[in-house]
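SUBJECT: A protein chain and its fold
Encoding: whole-number codes for local backbone shapes
RECORD BEGINS BELOW THIS LINE
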Amino acid sequence: MASASSPAPVRVRFCPSPTGNPHVGLVRTALFNWAFARHHGGTLVFRIEDTDAARDSEQSYEQLLDSMRWLGFDWDEGPEVGGPHAPYRQSQRMDIYADVADKLLEAGHAYRCYCTAEELEERREAARKAGRPSGYDGQCRDLTAERIAAYEAEGRSSIVRFRMPDGPITFTDLVRGELTFTPENVTDYGIVRANGAPLYTLVNPVDDALMEITHVLRGEDLLSSTPRQIALYRALAEIGVGGGLVPAFGHLPYVMGEGNKKLSKRDPQSSLNLYRERGFLPEGLLNYLSLLGWSLSADQDVFSIEEMVAAFDIDGVNANPARFDLKKAEAINADHIRMLDVKAFIEACGPWLQAPHAPWAPERFDAAAFEELAPLAQTRLTVLSDITANVDFLFLAEPVTDEASWVKAMKPGADALLATARAKLAEAEWAAEPLKEAVLAAGEEHGLKLGKAQAPVRVAVTGRTVGLPLFESLEVLGRERTLARIDAALAKLAA
């Protein structure tokens, strides 16, 4: 056991279950563990809790690994990396858990409980009516050999329960300070099912002990299980499982969604895939998630992951619930998009310029044309998927049909303005500034300022009332296609 004067090197773990698409609360937990390990030069153990055969799937397991890679997290021990405590999937460690359960039974730290579900509920209901705590009442704690034999003769099955100590358990939470749990509120609990399958309550602390975890940073929803696990860590030390270290605990604040409710997997905005599909940058999403319970400084919301790692420590985490604000997440992601160099931005846009996202035929895509407008697009995107609608006018044979934009721009007199603008554009030098002057002059002939004059031109050429700077767009689109689209719009207005 490490001494107080020479603390053990930091070892943290991230141990999700492969049960569907990762959610942002899980990602926030992974981020804080990863940043804590990197800040302290420690070790991140990536462990898969896949003992629930009914809910776990190989597809979800692969999705977890893919998500971790996309987010930019690396791990020092775990799947695909290995390590001294392999295997790192709990489904492959069943013999270990069975052996530990046997040792706990033999040492008297656990016992077999023969109570049926009906008996347990009947006694709980009676306790509730009497105003007493309704946890397990210790019925099978000290069964005689005769009573055990009688139960088994009846054909009763048994689970294994851990025997909690009789005194209170006090520990210092790294986020919430000193906490005390009294025995009546932390009763004996199951660690092995009747069919012999180990429960989370056993496997999680056993793996922590064997993998020498020094700090457990996890969600607040698991706080009530901490005294049970501390008692189990101590029992494991007595029977020689692990190095005898009880980890320090830090319980991260809830992430709240709409209606002041905890963000759950069922909330659409909790899905990590949603953010990937919309084109969030990993660094933008992680920057925002880091703010759910922590901050770099009072006046800086936007920072790099390297800046976070340099500054992050668990004592800076706030215990108060954090509210998920999608608009703020988008704003921070937009800042990160603008922080990319142009080459990186162009590369990041790649998936949204191809099928299935792009509505144009692949052969119509012109990389050189896109690269000309990319710096202008970069300043306007909130998420990368926005790029498709911003540049589709370049690569579609005809502009998109957006009826609301058409109605808004093509007011009475738009045909005359368009005809004048077309004539002046046809004579102009084909560069952004001369094109602007041409439309400005057309507007002046019709008593319109530039903003009003360019609106019908924009909709005729791009199909939308908003988009990239118009005259730079016309320059890249070219004279022939620009004039042809204005002609098509004039024909539609005349019909």
